[in-house]
Amino acid sequence: YGERTELLVDRENEVRNFQLLRAHSCAPKLYCTFQNGLCYEYMQGVALGPEHIREPRLFSLSADVPKVEVLERELAWLKEHLSQLESPVVFCHNDLLCKNIIYDSTKGHVRFIDYEYAGYNYQAFDIGNHFNEFAGVNEVDYCLYPAR
């Protein structure tokens, strides 16, 4: 929580998001709330770091990343064509930092925590946010993006 975070985060909305996600089995049980925090069910697993999300056994990808020139051409094409489309807005986590992803090796799955920024956003936001983590946070290295 931290000092004066209520200026940035709507804590009532965070609790509503938590309850909504729990109703759909996407969040742990919420036991109680306080003025300065939440108490929810323990989730077996470890919070991931940038080094974990690059492990193919946890997050395998099936496509190769093209060269920069190819991406630049594709970006130009996308700007031209997608500006004509309506992009869907969906419910997003909006904060998929590595530490908000809990990996349970005994069950072989991941779950998400911390819903204070959850809300409606463009469909691909969480995907883009997740892949941004591949480059690291404090020491950013874009060479760390997956090659496939």
UniProtKB/TrEMBL annotation:
<dbReference type="GO" id="GO:0006646">
    <property type="term" value="P:phosphatidylethanolamine biosynthetic process"/>
</dbReference>
<protein>
    <recommendedName>
        <fullName>ethanolamine kinase</fullName>
        <ecNumber>2.7.1.82</ecNumber>
    </recommendedName>
</protein>
<dbReference type="Pfam" id="PF01633">
    <property type="entry name" value="Choline_kinase"/>
</dbReference>
<keyword id="KW-0444">Lipid biosynthesis</keyword>
<comment type="pathway">
    <text>Phospholipid metabolism; phosphatidylethanolamine biosynthesis; phosphatidylethanolamine from ethanolamine: step 1/3.</text>
</comment>
<keyword id="KW-0594">Phospholipid biosynthesis</keyword>
<comment type="similarity">
    <text>Belongs to the choline/ethanolamine kinase family.</text>
</comment>
<keyword id="KW-1208">Phospholipid metabolism</keyword>
<dbReference type="GO" id="GO:0004305">
    <property type="term" value="F:ethanolamine kinase activity"/>
</dbReference>
<keyword id="KW-0443">Lipid metabolism</keyword>
<dbReference type="GO" id="GO:0005737">
    <property type="term" value="C:cytoplasm"/>
</dbReference>
<dbReference type="InterPro" id="IPR011009">
    <property type="entry name" value="Kinase-like_dom_sf"/>
</dbReference>
